[in-house]
Amino acid sequence: MDKLIISADTTDEGASKVVSGNENLQMGENRVTLKVTAQDGETTKEYVIVVTKQEGGPNESTQDGTGEESFEQFQMTVSRRSFTVMAPDASVQVPEGLVETAITIDGHAVKGWVWGNETEHQYCVIYAMNEAGEKNFYRYDLNNNERTIQRYFEDPAAQGAVSEEVYTQLADKYDSLRNDYSLFRTLLIAAIVVALIFMVLLIVSVTGKKKKSSSAEKKTARSEKKPVKEEDEDEDDLYGEEVEEPEDEPKDDLEEVDDQDEDDFQFEDLDDADDKEPEEDEPEEDSVDENAKEDTEDEKYSEFLESYRVQELVRKYSDYIRYPIRMEVEKSRMKEQPEGEEADEEKAPEYETYTEVETLNSMVPIWRKNKNELTDEDYNSFYKEKFFDYSDPLKVIHTYTEGAATYHALLFIPAKAPYNYYTRDYEKGLKLYASGVLIMDSCKDLLPDHFSFVKGLVDSEDLSLNISREMLQHDRQLKVIASRLEKKIKSELLSMLKNDREKYEEFFKNFGLQLKYGVYNGFGANKELLQDLLLFYSSSEQKLVTLEEYVSRMKEDQKYIYYAGGESREQIERLPQTELVKDKGYEILYLTDDVDEFALQMMHDYSEKEFKSVSASDLDLDTEEEKKEFEKQTEENKDLLTFMKDALDGKVKAVVLSKRLKSHPVCLSNEGMLSIEMEKVLNAMPNDQKVKAERVLEVNASHPIFEKLSKLYAEDQEKLKTYAQLLYTQAELIEGMPVEDPVAFSNAVCELMV
Q1: Which residues contact 538 (CB under 8 A, 6 or more apart)?
Q2: Which end of the chain has the least Cβ crowding within 10 Å, N or C?
C-alpha cells in the first residue's frame, strides 16, 4: 500500500481541510497530516495520523524488528461514536498501576492494560483517538453485550495508596455488587409485572361486578312491568330474583322449562332494549377521590386529571425522551351511515365518542438529527412552535460539543426584538434538557446578559435528572457549557458580520444596544469579547462601520478615535465642535444612543488608540506656531474673558478663545471625563442625580461678534453682561439643552433689537 485515503467531514460548512503526507508511504512509520481551517480563515487545527507500513502486510507477522509484539490499528463504533484504537507512541506515558497485555476487540488484537495480575478481566484500558482527533486513554468494557467506553482519568489521590491485593478485593466486591444490582433489577421488573397483572385482574373483576349488578337491576325492572297470570306469580318471581336452590333438592332445568307453558315467557325485542335509556348507576366510591386534594383559589388540582393537561405536561417535559409514552385518549368521530339508508341533508350529523391509544411524545429531538437532514423550514417551524414567534429566526446555531462537557445546542437569534425586551419583565435564558428531559424552562446561567436576546435550548447527558436548582447553580458542567456557548455565539455573529453585512446590520438595529450595555455593565470586563461586534455611524463613510474598519482608515498623524454625541445624526452634523476635526480630514463616529459614550469611556481605547470627544477641551490638533499665536491672543484678551466668566456667575468654569470654531460664534466644551451628553443622560434618570459637567464657553476670535464684545468691554460693560448671557444660552441651544429662563432670554433679545 503506497497511498492512504482519508475521509473527513467538518461541522461548519465554510471550513476547509487539506490532507498531506498520505501518498508514497515508506516502510516504517509515516506521518499523515490533516489541516482544518475554520470559516474565519484564521483558526486552524492540525491532526496527525501515524501510519506504520510493514513488509508482507499486517497479518503476516506479529512482531516488528525489535522483537516486540505488534498490534493492529482499527476503527470501532461505541454508542454511535467512532474511535480509532492504536498503540501509543514511545513519548506517551502510560498511567501507573496498569499492566500491559494483549486484548482482542471485535476480532482485532490490540495493546491494552489491566489492573492486577488476574487472567480474566471485565474492564481494560486502551489507547484511542476520537472523532475530533484527540488521543487519550479510555476505559473499555470487555463485555460485548455492554460495549461502553469512558475516558480514563488517573486519580492522583489514589496513586500508590492501594496495593494489588486490596485492589483485587475491591474489584471482587465491585463485581459482587454489580451482580446483586442485576439481580435486584430483575426482581424489581418481575414485581412490577406481577403488580400490573394484579391491577388488570382487579379492574376486570370490578368491571364484571358492575355489569352483573346492572344486568340484575334491569331484569328486576322488566319483571315488574311484565303482565303475568296470577297462577304464575311465584314462578315469575323465581326468574326475577336470584334464588339459591337447596343442595338436597336438585332440579333439572330442562324439565322445568318443558313443564311450563310458552305463553308464560315473554321475550323482549333486542332492538327495543337498545333504545331504552339505562338507569343511572349510583357512583362508586373511588380511593383516588378520597386522597385527591380539593381545588383552592390558588391551585386547581383537578386539572391534572384532565386528558389534555396530561398531554400538555408530557409534551413539555418528556417530549424528547427516547421511549414512547402512550395513553388512552378520548376522541370523537362522526357516526357512519348504515348501509341501505339515504343520507338526510337536513338532519344534523351524529357523533360518537371512542378511545384510542396515542403516543404523546415525539421521541426524536430535532437537535440530535444531522444538519444535512434538516432544512431551513424544519428549523423555522420548530422555532415558531416552541418559542411563540411569528417571524423566522435571523440566525440558527446548531452545534454539538464533546469533551469536558458534552452537549447539543440549538440556538436562535430572533429577527426582531420582543416588545418587552428592554424592560424588567423580559426573562432571559435557555431551555435546559438532560438526556431529552426538560429540567428547566429558562436557565439564566447559560446566557450572559449581553447575549440575552438568544433563544434556544441545551441538551446534555452530563447533567443528572434529579439535580436540584440549588445544585444546578453551582454545577461545573453548566459553567463550562455557558462559557463555550458564549464563544460560539460571538463566532457566529462575527461570521455574519463578515459574510452577510446586511443581515448583521439588521441584527444590530434590534440588539446592538444590548451589546453596548454589555460593555458598560461589566466596567470594561467584556471589552475584548464585544468590541469587534459594535457598529457606529461614520461621518466620512455615511454608514455603519466597525472600530476595526475605522482604525484601518486612520491617518498616520492621527492620535485618537474621534467621536461626537447627540440625539440624531443630523444634529451632530450641525455641531460647531466638529468643524476643526473635519477640516483636518479626520473621521468622526456619531453616537446617538444614550449608552454609547459611557461604553466608550469604559473601553478607553481600541487597538491602542484612545477615544476622544470632539467637545473635549484638549483636542491637541494645533501646530507649534498656531499654539504660540493662540497663547499670545489669549493673553491680550485676558481681561475681557475674565469679565465674561464673572458675568455668567458660575455657569461655566472658564471663558476661552476657541481653536476649533471656524464659522460659528460660540460653543460649549467640557473638561474632565463627564461630557455634556453624559450629563443630559444622567439627569434624565429617575433618581434625579443632578450632575453637571465642567463647562467651558469658547468664543470664536475671528467672528465679527468678538469685535463687538471687545468694543462693549471698553464702552458699555453692562451691555456686555447681557451679550455674555445671550451667547451662553445660544451655546446651550446648540447642544440641545433647555433654556433655564426663556422669559429673560426673550427680553434680552428684544432689548438688543430696539
Answers
A1: 544, 545, 550, 587, 588, 589, 590
A2: C
